[in-house]
Each structure stands twice: as structure tokens, then as C-alpha cells.
Amino acid sequence: MNTQYDEMEFRLLKLATRKLLDSFQNLKDASSHCRVKPTNLSQYQSFEHSAFMPVDVVLELERAAETSVLSEEMARIAGSKPTAESERGVRDEALDVPVAVGELLAFVCEATAAESAGGQALTENEKRRYFELRNKVEAELRELDGAVEQDGSLMRQKAS
Description:
Helices cover about 60% and strands about 0% of the residues. A two-stranded antiparallel ribbon has the order 1-2. The protein folds into two domains: about 5-80, Orthogonal Bundle (434 Repressor (Amino-terminal Domain)); about 85-155. With about 160 residues, the protein is mostly helical. It is built from seven helices and two strands.
């Protein structure tokens, strides 16, 4: 991860990038409106890559899509102070869920590929890893539940 950003800002920017790119039929369509290739656009929205979209590409894509979702998120982040770990709200907790689910799904796709260690069946190590990732998803959902249930406030203390 890029150390210039805290984890939440990183996720917010990646999610906003994904939302912008989802405005197009596909990445090839999006790339026809800017100077970068579909593979680069894919990396800009990926949590696995630290690269972010160059500002001129953001402008070109937002103009083509007639939305400013990424610019608006950057402005929101620039105008806010970092969220303390003890003051994470429902939105912050909700953003953790798709990341955990994405990690789980990516693992399953990789582990069940024909060329993987166990072929399309999971090895014992892959089964253990699956349950580790699944438990992480469950933990993120419990944290989100706690944030939603907290006495009417959108802010809550994060469990240590």
C-alpha cells in the first residue's frame, strides 16, 4: 500500500476509482477516452496495486462519464482530518466488508483455477486459508453490525 495515505483513504480512493470506471461499458471503452490502457485502468481500481490514476486521466474520464465521483472523493478527503481508529462510523466499517469479501473471492478464484496446486479442488492448506479469509469477512460484518446497532450514533468505539 502507498504509505502517503492512510488505509481508509486508500480504500476510499480505490472505491471511487472503481465507481468512475463502472460508468463505462468496460475498461476498453474507458481507455478510449484517455491516454492509458485497460490494464493500467484495472490497476488503478485494484486494492492490490498502489498506483492511482493520474489527474489528467481522472479529468478525461470524468468528463466522458459526466460524473465527478473521484474528484468529489478526493475533495472530501482533502477537507477532512484522518479518522481515528476509535471513531470509525458505519460508512468506515462498511468499506471494510467489500475488501474482505474481495480477498476471499480472489483467493477462491485463484485456488480453484485448473493450474493451481490442487487443481479445481482445494488442498488442505487452501482450505485453511479459505476459512481464515472467511472468518475475516465474518469479523468485518460483526464490526459493521456493532456500528449500526450502537445507540443511534454513527460513531462508536472500535473493539481492541
